[in-house]
């Protein structure tokens, strides 16, 4: 028998967000380390290796409020308990769907959740790269009330003690979106370098983030400024040369960021180069005239 | 102790148990239910040997805690066929050399059963993507691929 992790662990099984944050607060007041359990795809291996040894676990499956997706006039709200499999077919967000389709294997997509991706905050996490490009807001609730945090602030500051991620909110798409990644066997390894690109034809801008190079998913601001200025917004297209320049600026931008830890098999210079290639490719898929009708695509 | 009572259905039969919250579903099936067809290979969510169906969805039983299966339906390899009455997927694996040592086979059969239920006529690319969450160190996958192709043709 291989029951993972040290001494015994208390289990909370709340049925509502209110009960969940009450359980979190009680554990925090008692000074006991507590972990949230959603799909378990990150937590269970960490329990086994002992890297996350909680005195208590708050299991969130019964909290049905967390499994809701909603569409407002300008935004989409995705509950923290929504799985990748549920997102993979979501027509309202082709970019989120494309990203979710290339996460892990089907067994992982059936379990892994949006809230889990935010809670684990793996800097190579596929969803985080997309949500960074999408300028997502993270919705949090504690016993003291609810708040919204920009994703970047959330990733740098994390959850406060007693807080629960309830949902993420992204703007409704207003143009082509894509997500590209490279790495080892997708089903077995996290992506090495990833790139999400969203075209906003209403505000006439491109939002692009790169994962796996900087310490967090990184918006490539210089490249975005080039796109805003030089894309033909009357048609939503750009010449192939602009895609190349976009990729160069994206690589230069992410090179300047505080880097993710060094990895001897995949040196930083290689990952910077790959990020530029992916950014140029994503730009071309969404904006060059030949492939402009394509709204989203897997790598 | 912080053991909790759980109740779930496994292959159509109700099962109850008192478990430590960190007990995995794989260990619950093997140790409490004595259903040892669910194999444990890597135990960190990569090899797919422990794949079972949880409310019909393929999941890795080494990444699911037994308490997460409370109130739900689990289908293991033992629930798909018997030695006397193999499932169409099991027959196809047998007839197409889809197994050699057999260690990974339960996970493959469960994964393929879910794949063909959701997509009865998959393309070659869809078959390969559907198999990607399971690792086999013997066959080179060609026999497994042929078995899925054959099972797709024979599944009503």
From TrEMBL, chain A:
Record's keyword annotation contains Transport: no
A Pfam family annotated for this UniProt entry: CO_deh_flav_C
Record GO terms (molecular function): FAD binding; oxidoreductase activity
Full protein name: Molybdopterin dehydrogenase
PROSITE patterns in the record: FAD_PCMH (PS51387)
Species the sequence originates in: Parafrankia soli
InterPro entries: CO_DH_flav_C, CO_DH_flav_C_dom_sf, Diverse_Substr_Oxidored, FAD-bd_PCMH, FAD-bd_PCMH-like_sf, FAD-bd_PCMH_sub1, FAD-bd_PCMH_sub2, Mopterin_DH_FAD-bd
Keywords: FAD, Flavoprotein, Oxidoreductase
PANTHER family according to UniProt: XANTHINE DEHYDROGENASE SUBUNIT C-RELATED
SMART domains: CO_deh_flav_C (SM01092)
Record-annotated FAD-binding PCMH-type domain positions: 3-175
Automatic annotation (TrEMBL), chain B:
Protein name according to UniProt: 4-hydroxybenzoyl-CoA reductase subunit gamma
UniProt cross-references to PROSITE patterns, sorted A to Z: 2FE2S_FER_1, 2FE2S_FER_2
SUPFAM superfamilies per the UniProt record, alphabetical: 2Fe-2S ferredoxin-like (SSF54292), CO dehydrogenase ISP C-domain like (SSF47741)
Keywords from the named record: 2Fe-2S, Iron, Iron-sulfur, Metal-binding, Oxidoreductase
UniProt domain 2Fe-2S ferredoxin-type: residue ranges: 4-80
Organism of provenance: Parafrankia soli
Recorded metabolic or biological pathway in which this protein acts: Alkaloid degradation; nicotine degradation
GO molecular function, one term: oxidoreductase activity
């Amino acid at each position: 028998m291989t029951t993972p992790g040290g001494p015994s662990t208390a289990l909370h099984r709340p049925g509502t967000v209110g009960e969940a944050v009450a359980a979190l607060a009680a554990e925090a007041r008692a000074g006991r380390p507590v972990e949230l359990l959603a799909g378990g795809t990150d937590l269970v291996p960490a329990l086994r290796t002992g890297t996350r040894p909680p005195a208590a676990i708050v299991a969130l499956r019964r909290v049905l409020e967390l499994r809701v997706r909603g569409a407002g006039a300008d935004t989409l709200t995705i509950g923290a308990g929504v799985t990748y499999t549920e997102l993979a077919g979501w027509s309202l967000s082709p970019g989120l769907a494309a990203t979710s389709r290339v996460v892990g294997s089907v067994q992982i997509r059936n379990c892994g959740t949006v809230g889990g991706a935010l809670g684990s905050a793996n800097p190579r996490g596929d969803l985080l790269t997309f949500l960074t490009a999408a300028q997502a807001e993270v919705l949090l609730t504690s016993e003291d009330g609810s708040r919204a945090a920009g994703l970047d602030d959330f990733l740098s500051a994390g959850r406060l003690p007693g807080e629960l991620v309830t949902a993420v909110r992204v703007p409704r798409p207003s143009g082509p979106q894509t997500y590209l990644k490279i790495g080892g066997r997708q089903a077995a390894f996290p992506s090495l370098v990833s790139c999400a690109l969203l075209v906003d034809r209403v505000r006439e801008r491109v939002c692009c983030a790169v994962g796996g190079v900087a310490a967090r998913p990184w918006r490539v601001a210089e490249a975005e400024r080039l796109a805003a200025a030089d894309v033909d917004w009357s048609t939503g297209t750009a010449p192939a040369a602009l895609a190349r320049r976009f990729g160069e600026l994206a690589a230069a931008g992410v090179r300047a960021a505080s880097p993710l830890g060094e990895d001897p098999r995949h040196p930083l210079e290689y990952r910077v180069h790959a990020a530029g290639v992916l950014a140029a490719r994503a730009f071309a898929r969404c904006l060059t005239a030949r492939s402009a009708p394509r709204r989203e695509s897997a790598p | 102790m912080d053991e909790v009572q759980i109740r779930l259905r496994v292959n159509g039969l109700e099962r109850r148990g008192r478990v430590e919250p960190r007990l995995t579903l794989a260990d619950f099936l093997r140790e409490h239910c004595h259903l040892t067809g669910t194999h444990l290979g890597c135990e960190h969510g990569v090899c797919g040997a422990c794949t079972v169906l949880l409310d019909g969805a393929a999941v890795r039983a080494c990444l699911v805690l037994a308490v997460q299966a409370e109130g739900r339906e689990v289908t293991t390899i033992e629930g798909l066929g018997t030695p006397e009455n193999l499932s169409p997927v099991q027959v196809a694996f047998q007839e197409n050399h889809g197994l050699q040592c057999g260690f990974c086979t339960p996970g493959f059969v469960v994964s393929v059963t879910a794949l063909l239920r959701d997509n009865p006529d998959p393309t070659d690319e869809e078959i390969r993507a559907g198999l990607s969450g399971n690792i086999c160190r013997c066959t080179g996958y060609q026999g497994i691929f042929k078995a899925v192709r054959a099972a797709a043709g024979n599944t009503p």
